[in-house]
Sequence to fold (1658 residues):
Amino acid sequence: MMGAVHAVPLHAETGDDAWLRYAPLDAVARKKYESLPASVLTLGDSPVLGAAQGELIRGVRGMMGRTLREGKSLPQENAFVLGTLAELHKADPALRAPGDLREDSFWLTTVRVHGFACLIITSPTDRGVLYGVFALLAKMARNETVASLNEVQQPFAPIRWVNQWDNLNGSIERGYGGRSIFFDAGSVRSDLTRAGDYARLLASVGINGCAINNVNADSRILKDDFLPQLARIADVFRPWGVRLAIAIDVSSPKVIGGLDTFDPLDPGVSDWWRKKVDEIYQQIPDFAGFIVKADSEGRLGPSTYGRTPADAANVIARALKPHGGLVFYRAFVYNHHLDWRNPKNDRARAAYDIFHPLDGKFDDNVVIQIKYGPIDFQVREPVSPLFGGLRSTNEAIELQITQEYLGQQRHLCFLPPMWKETLDFDLHAAGRSTPVKDLVAGKSFHRPTGGFVGVANVGLDADWLGHPLALANLYGFGRLAWNPNLSSGTIANEWTRMTFGNNPTVVRTISAMQLASWRIYENYTGPLGAGTLTNILGSHYGPGVESSERNGWGQWHRADHQGIGMDRTVATGTGYVGQYPAPVAGKYESLKSTPDELLLFFHHVPYTYVLHSGKTVIQYIYDSHYEGAQQAQGLVGQWESLKNDLDDEVYAAVLARLQYQAGHAIVWRDAVCNWFLRMSGIPDAKGRVGHYPNRIEAEGMQLQGYAPFDVIPQETGSGGKGIECAPPLQHCDASFRFDRAAGWYELDVEYFDQINGESKFRLFVGNQQVDEWVADDHLPAIKPGGDSSTRRRITGLALRPGDEIRIEGFPDGKELAPLDYVEVFARSQ
Amino acid sequence: MMGAVHAVPLHAETGDDAWLRYAPLDAVARKKYESLPASVLTLGDSPVLGAAQGELIRGVRGMMGRTLREGKSLPQENAFVLGTLAELHKADPALRAPGDLREDSFWLTTVRVHGFACLIITSPTDRGVLYGVFALLAKMARNETVASLNEVQQPFAPIRWVNQWDNLNGSIERGYGGRSIFFDAGSVRSDLTRAGDYARLLASVGINGCAINNVNADSRILKDDFLPQLARIADVFRPWGVRLAIAIDVSSPKVIGGLDTFDPLDPGVSDWWRKKVDEIYQQIPDFAGFIVKADSEGRLGPSTYGRTPADAANVIARALKPHGGLVFYRAFVYNHHLDWRNPKNDRARAAYDIFHPLDGKFDDNVVIQIKYGPIDFQVREPVSPLFGGLRSTNEAIELQITQEYLGQQRHLCFLPPMWKETLDFDLHAAGRSTPVKDLVAGKSFHRPTGGFVGVANVGLDADWLGHPLALANLYGFGRLAWNPNLSSGTIANEWTRMTFGNNPTVVRTISAMQLASWRIYENYTGPLGAGTLTNILGSHYGPGVESSERNGWGQWHRADHQGIGMDRTVATGTGYVGQYPAPVAGKYESLKSTPDELLLFFHHVPYTYVLHSGKTVIQYIYDSHYEGAQQAQGLVGQWESLKNDLDDEVYAAVLARLQYQAGHAIVWRDAVCNWFLRMSGIPDAKGRVGHYPNRIEAEGMQLQGYAPFDVIPQETGSGGKGIECAPPLQHCDASFRFDRAAGWYELDVEYFDQINGESKFRLFVGNQQVDEWVADDHLPAIKPGGDSSTRRRITGLALRPGDEIRIEGFPDGKELAPLDYVEVFARSQ
Fold:
């Protein structure tokens, strides 16, 4: 077993290695590990043990500048010893593990073997040995002591998976980190280097399964000619102990199988699945299983034949059973043509209504995969009641690492604090304490399996997710799946140390930014459990308060002139609250005992309703959005304080993201506040909303060529209007007269940066050009509005009363150099 | 006059901006400049004044984050005021310059104008105003005070030029920073952005002329269709006050002019030159003149017709005269077929012998361009006696910024200390003090013009010269041309602050490295004035001690079995010493009074000759080469101490260069020492030379496929031999048994990295691969030897007695995976 040699280049803080940088340790830390052995002995032989040994050598070389000697037999000198408990016991019968070690757990211990000091990394499984190596290297990267180690770590649950929503054409649904690492143009990529690198990242935090394709599955993935391609991916996963899974289309027997039905109770269909699965296992002996999305958002499912999800799941599960494979059946099943006029209709009820009656009807190798909340990955949702509603069925929680509704990696949003709230939530199922983490791990009702699924959607971008700091979410998901009792603070601290080193200022600052970020994002995007007030019909990105109303998608917040919120009580509402066990239902049924942060999820209240905090709902909406926007600006300053402590490249990349976020937070703030001001008619007690003394609306400027247009929805443009420079004009002007006192000023130009053009702008003071820029970002928008609204900040301008300030716009493609407004702030320079 | 807007991106410490980064100042420095005016008023209108105003705005914006307001009329508020003395006087007759300001000088002063505090930057010329702006911005970049400024700076000499040796095909003779910024494929480039950027760099240190093409000139440059292309370059130079010049072929009247002669005394030839020059000035009104290399190294010249250099220079000078143009006639004229068997022959005599008799025969717009030493840009030469030999003729000193014989920008070699020794050297011409700087500036004999020419050879590489630290030589040349009385320490300090910021550790360390580097390079490459012991017939790069001997090029050091050195005395040698004025000649004529560092230039001595230092010549050769190689390794450590204080990219780029240099210094050390050991038969008193206890010669290893070959010249391979893996073999092995004590070791593999192949190497300890690399550098070598010899350092290996160490080589192209030796050092890790 010859370890591959990895060069140890200069360690940039971004890039493929993510938190596995193994950057050279400083002298003090090196000293600490100087007496570690110079050899590594690996007992036994397997791809996973080979990866474990290679990783140890790579890590020690990176951090210590030493190349460990490889060996196979018991030591003639001090050594690291890697091997399963069985191999270890064979080599030295005196070695015995402390207590009962579960699959994938590991034991790190320092003992004398044949008179030599050995650091032993062992486990019941090869995979556990690999995890032990990663754990040891992580300790070194964090400068923790490894002297006299004697430590056992056991995974909380057997299922610790990620899903990728990659399409076979190479795009990724809700992916924000580039193209697929698996697929391109309808086939598996020829170069799977990044897929192997990904498996290494996953293994380092204990993730043992990965489904690689979109749950809105293309049935071609099961075609005969595709299976050898899948086997190539399984090959690069295998050394890292990551098992391959795929999402499937339940109509495959008909679509690609040549049958005239996919009825799960049809013997031909059952036969087809068995043969197909056997074929897969011939090529991929450690294949992990299937993900199923059926009868959901237009996907076909068992309802076509009047069958239940259990029927559909079991026919496939039985094909997998002999090989040890699993079916993950997603509980994300609901009617998306719900009649919004019926106040009793409630999408939140769907999963429980459908799956609770089927409890006990699923085979033992079926897992119901349940999103954390009853709606869809919103910034704040209560826990899905279905977690407590399945007691004779395996379940797994579906968390979303990719930030679909949470800023799409353009906004910083560290998710472990949100996930922890769900995982720690006690549903009191069956009259006793049943935190969600215990339920999904199968502990509460002694299920054979269960666990955690994270929708990751990494891509080919060097930083995997599109924002260097977003990698903390992938890391955090893995760590919580391994041990949900870790605190968010611990996770943030670990990740920061491994990614940016152990400089205390850096660790403190970045951890604090991460830990505050979810609440900041919630502050400026969505109040009191109403959900994210985003455009739910399109990009799921910028503000779009009304997009959830008056349509069948059921993400209603029911805001009107009087009040806001969904009445989901049993007494007067949709009855959803009744899906919770009594102790929980009791809390949510009453307005008084419902926590403020979920108030509008459960109750419809007038804007003047007074919260526990003492504020009215409407004033809370105003205040939280102003506070959030200010906090987002604060993140920029925190990051800037680290300028001299970070790698220049990552510093610049993150700074640009945070500055954008701070600008977009203002777009969110203004859109939400103005919408509610208009709807409620109740002014902001602090006089901010609707009053912008430093703002000059573009439509109010002196225009040459430029013409006003209505921004849709209106709250996503300041004053509801912007200006555009329409063909055949190639160039337009907007100007205004500066009339304040002479001094140093900052000018913020709010413009719209669509993806369907690259307009150019120039800014003049008098005849002097003081800035120019191109609107060439790739935001998810083809028209001016909340998705595309972007801020250009020009600082250090000496303005004098009477100055003419003028913007020249040069349209390009379908992007008509659109402008919203300019803000002028006095700033000492 | 609208200033172009330059974005102020993150400031990398490498790249186009070189020392003009204008990086944001820290808070303390900002404070210092906070009360500077917010406006800039520019009196008058010209491209140069426009550039000056734009530069001031750009610099202040970069460092202070402020955009100055542009204005044209006298201030309504505090302001920077830019304008010539004439314009200034027109605007406010009370303003008067202190004393007499020469052309291009400038005055920075703080005065009240119409009651407002103004910082005035003025000069007799537009160019001087631009220089004043650069001087002010440089002060700010170095955090120097600018309060109550009242400072005049005057240039030391009117001629402050660079030459580029660019070929029309885009290559550059002796250029090491990439392809030409001016030419590509026989024409002027369409994109001249870098040419403009270069002119800006030049202007920032007061350089006012640039000849853009190889002195081995292609006559096509004077063709009618080329002139408009040259005009485009003049256009991008003009705003920066840099005048365009070109090198010409004196045979042009015949080669491209259609005449049957280029005899300078032929009236048709004279007529041709007049018409050609008129044509040039029609298109380039500020054209600066011509450089002439004639009768030199195979170039045609006036000797074809029995005419003198004065005849050739004057016919061209008379054509230029009406337009104010100059002819630079290079004194680098010598016979390169000199009979080496005649001990009286001496190339060093040539320039003086040819040009001294012509003194007074050159027109007043002719300048004789004289290399600093009598040979050719060697690491140590005495001053050219011709500087004192022309008293009625203009002269300029030719210095070489590109490191042709001085490591070609792969070795650090900061040249101002060397240049200073030449410039400060007192030739005592005409019985009084005449330092070279005064002679070349025309001060000693009251010449109308004179000055400094630097051969720069920048290229398209981002760092211009191929080594980020080499830019200090371009900067230093400009600073010395402006003021040769500046110390090398001041120049190093200035450049480091402007390039890397004002962190005292950084400034101290980099300045110290620069200041030591020339002597370090001399130590390991060339002793006691014998010249650089390089391969003079080929690349002028690696060692090649005998290449100078027994051929007509005349760079002889006359080393034989008894002794070394050229006897150039009047009494017994070539008589060259007699070209110096008596006080200088007296010093060099006597062995006793000749300084050690130039001993071998003037005298032939036995190896046992005892130096002033008390060492024998041979022991000095050994000691200085060992000391130099050790100092080169020390540079690596000094640089590594700055890891956390520098931009990552430049840190990595320079570190790689310094590590290479340290390895190549050992190649130099061993080649030179072994050559002299073999020649002299006198052992190293310290027992180092020829004894390498840690070295395993490749030819002595266990070979599979590999076969030994003779390295030529033999001293450039250890033991005179290497090993190669010849076709049809695709792979060879060389191995040896490690027999020292168990411990941590470093392994240095010396291999040959040619430009005509990219061999691959793998290193194994036992069956464990511990390193692999590709020989893909672009060194100037197509065979194994001193030019290609390269070191791969593998650290942190735990070796045990009995280990087999094996190198696998995979040849590629004409590079046969050649190896020289391995060295094994015990190093604690």
Q: What stands out?
A: DSSP finds 20 helices and 29 strands in chain B. The longest strand of chain B covers residues 789-799. The two ends of chain B are 62 Å apart (CA to CA).
